[in-house]
Amino acid sequence: MPDQSKDLFTLPGEDGPAGEFSPLADRMRPRSLEEFEGQEQILGPEGVLRRMIESDRIASMIFWGPPGSGKTTLGRIIAAGTGSRFIHHSAVTCGVAQVKEAVKEAEESLRLYRRRTILFLDEIHRFNKAQQDALLPHVENGTLTLIGATTENPSFEVNSALLSRVRVFVLQRLEKEHLGRIVDRALSDCERGLGNRKLSLSEDARDLLLRACDGDARAALTGLELSALYLEKAPARKKSREITVKVMKEALQQRLLQYDRAGDQHYDVISAFIKSLRGSDPDAALYWMARMLEAGEDPLFILRRMMIFAAEDVGNADPQALSVAVAAFQAVSAIGLPEGAIPMSQAVTYLATAPKSNASYLALKNAQATAREALSEPVPLHLRNAPTKLMKAIGYGEGYKYPHDFPYHFTTQQYLPDALKGKKFYEPTSLGFEKEIRRRIEFWKKLVEEEKKK
């Protein structure tokens, strides 16, 4: 049984051997809701999580949000605010044995000290079904309070049994004003921050840092700390206390974009890309394409989605769109990156500015639905192949009209099964080339009507 005389919420820098040697991001970790930046939607005066904390009615929950949005910090603040023991595990290294040990400690804490235990499980999406199931009874009976943290959509990564027993809070990426206050506080704080170093941060360097960290508070503080270290390591004759843009660039080198090829960002960014193409915004589409490529996305993945888009969202409004997308796929397959980005850009701008129609896609969905309902409808006799005398004798192919034998290479004839006669799936729009297709269909309708009058 762990020593209960010491508050397990103790943070690096507050006590213990880590002290001033802890990273700045750890030392500046907020200790209370008053210090916490962002997430007003759940922590504002009327926020549901704030009410839960202040009323000491904490239930098991999952924090879903991007890196550096405050998931772990919130877990610690909740533990401190409710006087609970805090056990922190990462699902990457934690197994069923560690879960059982945490449960045992939680039971003893309740029995001996009437003190609740919060099990904070980082990257809970990495727990397999057996590990998640091991938590279920103890979450359900209140032996411990589970706080999970994940950057992945828990709807997909957490099994339904556990998900039904927790409340999911969505944390948003921090805005620049939040990050700005966090950085400014770290610069001026003499106890936990860099205040004793009397450093200044130029406006341009500050703006660069806030943009580069992309909503991640941990990254912002790490960048600031690296900048301070860069100044310290400079030769004596070049010593300065101002962090300039040049210093910041040297410290940051290159901040990778927030984009996980296996996670939500992967799907969110490709979704934004496709929706920008569909919305006929070539500038936004190019930005999302460039962002994916800069983050290391496979260009062929992007191009496969572009081929689908060309058929689904442009369709016959511009039949050339699919050819352009396929040609770009072939070009990039042959030449690779970085030069392959050039035909990609050409294809993106073409698709974004092409007239749009999803009529072919809708026709497919309608036809598929009908086919599922009418899988056994017989093929009309006049449409059947008749390669043998027997087939001809029983009427196969009889009465078929060869369109090329008629004016305009068209003749009225039934092609659908009898039960589906007159059914319409494809309704072309009046945009782009589909305007011409629509005109042709209307012309054929007139020929049919004239044929009926004869």
Task: Report on this structure.
It is a single chain. This protein is α/β, with parallel strands linked by helices. It has four domains: 140 residues, P-loop containing nucleotide triphosphate hydrolases (Rossmann fold); 77 residues, Helicase, Ruva Protein, domain 3 (Orthogonal Bundle), CATH 1.10.8; 90 residues, Zinc Finger, Delta Prime, domain 3; 75 residues, Orthogonal Bundle (post-AAA+ oligomerization domain-like). It is 50% helix and 7% strand. The chain has 20 helices and seven strands. The protein has a five-stranded parallel beta sheet with strand order 2-3-4-1-5, with helices on both faces. Helix 6 links the parallel strand 3 and strand 4. The radius of gyration is 32 Å and the shape is elongated. The relative contact order is 0.07. The N terminus is likely disordered.
SSE topology sketch:
Layout: H1 24-27, H2 40-43, H3 48-54, E1 61-64, H4 71-82, E2 85-90, H5 96-113, E3 117-122, H6 129-140, E4 145-150, H7 154-157, H8 160-163, E5 167-170, H9 176-188, E6 200-201, H10 203-212, H11 217-233, E7 242-243, H12 245-252, H13 264-278, H14 282-294, H15 299-314, H16 320-335, H17 341-353, H18 359-373, H19 389-393, H20 434-453
Helix pairs in contact: 5-6, 9-11, 10-12, 11-12, 13-14, 13-15, 14-17, 15-16, 15-17, 16-17
The poorly predicted ranges are 1-18
Number of domains: 4
User: Sheet with the most strands?
Assistant: 5 strands, parallel
| CA radius of gyration | 32 Å
What's the CATH first level of the largest domain? Alpha Beta
Which architecture of the largest domain per CATH? 3-Layer(aba) Sandwich
N- to C-terminal distance: 98 Å
Q: Tell me the β content.
A: 5-15%
Q: Give the overall shape, derived from the CA principal axes.
A: elongated
Within the CATH hierarchy, at the fold level, what is the topology of the largest domain? Rossmann fold
- The amount of helix comes to 40-55%
Number of helices: 20
